[in-house]
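Budget justification, computational time. The allocation requested in the original proposal was used primarily to generate C-alpha cells for proteins on the priority list. As evidence of use, we reproduce two of the resulting records. The first is shown immediately below.
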Amino acid sequence: MTTSRKAIAGLLVCCCWGCAGVRAGRPGLRVGADGALLRNGQPFRGIGVNYFDAFYRTLKDPADTSYDTGFAELSRRGIPFVRLAGCGFWPADWKLYFEDKARYFALFDALVRSAEKHKVGLIPSLFWHSPTVPDLVGEPRDQWGNPQSKTHAFMRQYVAEVVGRYKRSPAIWGWEFGNEYNLDADLPNAAKHRPKIVPSLGTPTSRSPRDDVTHDMLAVAFAAFAREVRRHDPHRILTTGNSVPRPSAWHQWKEKSWTQDSQEQFAERLVLDNPDPIDVVSVHVYRDPMKRFGREVGAAEFLKLAVAVAKKAGKPLFVGEFGAGEAEPPNAEGTRKHFEGILAATEAAGVPLAALWVYDFAHQDKVWNVVPTNARAYQLDAVAAANQRLRGRRAAAAEGKPAE
C-alpha cells in the first residue's frame, strides 16, 4: 500500500523529535532513585485533566482535530498534562489500524505534534478497555494472564509501534497500560459483570467464565507491559491505570468474598496491583467520605495513607482520576463542595500527580464533562489555581525559601 504524503511527513517529524529528544536529555516524567517524581531532573507535582477522547474522536472522524483547540486552552490555563486513550475503545474502533496503519499513525502523529506545539504533556493509555485486545485476536479475557497468548503478542506489537515512534517526543510524559482493570478482578459475582456483548462493535457473540480475570492474571499483564515499554523507553513513568482497590479486594483475592479489608490488607493489595517494573502507584478517587476498613474514611485521610504506602514501595502516587459529577444541576452547592474537598485533599496529602475527570467529553455532558463554557468551568479554574500554587512552591524550594 502506498504511504501517504501526510504519513511520510509524520515519520519525518518523528525523526525531528528524536533529534530534539537527544538534545534535551530525558523528556517527560521519571521516578528518581528515592521514589520521587521528577521532571527535568527536579521534584515535580502537577494536576492535569483526563482528555479521554482527544485521540479517539479523530479516530472516529479524521476531520475532527478539535483537540488542538483543547490543548491550546489547557496550555493557556497552565494545566500541564492530559491522560487520554491512546487507542480505540471497542474492537471496531481499531479498523483503521488494521486496514491502513500509515493513516492511523498519521492521525496519532498530528495529535502528538499539537500537544508538543502547545507544551501539554501526554500520558496515553494504550489498552483502555480490558476485553478489547483479547476480542481483537479471538481469545477470552483470561489470556491477559498468559505471556504466550495472542493477546500478549498484540500488546507487545502495539507497544513497540507506539512507544518506539514517540519515545523521543517531549510531549510524552508517561505510558499507561489501561483503565481500571483491577475493578474486575476476583469478583465473587463475576458472571454478572462479564464484558458486554455488542457484535456490531466487534465483540464476540458470547462470554464465558474464561472472560473472568483475577488479580494474579492482571499482575502478569502489567509486568509484561512494563517490560516491553522498557525495551523502548528506559526512563518515563509507567502506570497500570488502576482505580483504587475495591474495599474488599484482598478478601476477593484470597477467598472470593466481599469482607472489607483491613488497612494492612489494603496496603498489601495496593502494592501488588502495581507490580515492578511499573514504577508509579495508580488510584482513582471519587468518594469523600468512603467506606473503608469497617468505617467511614475521608478523602484526606485516605490519600495520605495511599501516598505513604506508595512511598514505602519507592513509588510516587498517581491519582489518575478524581472529580465530582452530579445528577443535580452542575452548580449544585453539594457538588461544588465535594469537588473542592477532594482537590484540597489531593494537595494536602502531597499527591505528586493527579488528573481531573473529565475535560471536553461531550458523551458525559450531563454529569461529568468540564469545559470553559459550562457550569463546571469552576473545576478548570480550581485546577489551574492549584497548579499555580504548586509552581510557586517548586520555585520557592529551588531558591531555598519556605513555601507559603
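The second record produced under the same allocation is shown here.
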Amino acid sequence: MKAISGFEYRSLPMAATRYAAVCVTAAGLMALSARASFHLPFTPVPVTMQVFTALLCGLVLGSRLGAASQMLYVAAGAAGLPVFADGKGTAAVLGPTGGYIVGFIAAAFLAGLIAERLASRPTFGAALGAAAGVVVIYLCGASWLAVWMAASGDQVTIGSAWLLGTAPFLGVDCLKAIAAAAIASGGLTQRLKPRATI
C-alpha cells in the first residue's frame, strides 16, 4: 500500500472540511429554494426552485458531492428541520411530494455523472445531464405520488399521477434545466480553457 506523505496527510482534514462546507452550503441553498414555493389548486405538488438547485448542484459539484449535498438536505428535513416546502420530518418524506424529495438525490448524481463523462463537451454534457435529472425527478416523484394516492384510497392510474405530478410542471422545469445547464456549462468551459503562460 502506498504511504501517504506528511503533506498529503495534513491536507486531508482541510479537504474534508472544504467538502463538508460545500455540502452544507448546497443543502442550505436547497432549503432556500423550497421556501420560494406556491401551490396550484389542482395538485398537491408545489412549484419550487428546487429542481433548478438540485440540477445545478449535481452539474457544478459533480456526481458524488452533488448527491451528498442532497442527501444532507433530505436528512436535515427528515430530522425535523423546516427545510421542506411542505411539512417537516418523515411526514413530508412520506407525503405526496416524498418521491420528488428523494429524486433530488438521484437527479444530482445522474446530472453530475453525465457532465463528468462528457467533460470534453461541457455544453452538451450539462444539457444532457440536466435533462436526465429532470426525468429522474419526475419518475421518482410521479411513482411515489401514485403510491401515496392509492394508499389514501383514491382511484389512481399512471395517467392521473402524471397529470397531477408531472404535466403541470413540464414547461417551467424545462426552463429551470436550461438555466442550470447554461450556468454550469459556462463554469465548465472556463475550467477547460488553457491558461496563458508567461
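A brief technical remark on that second record: The chain is about 75% helix and 0% strand.
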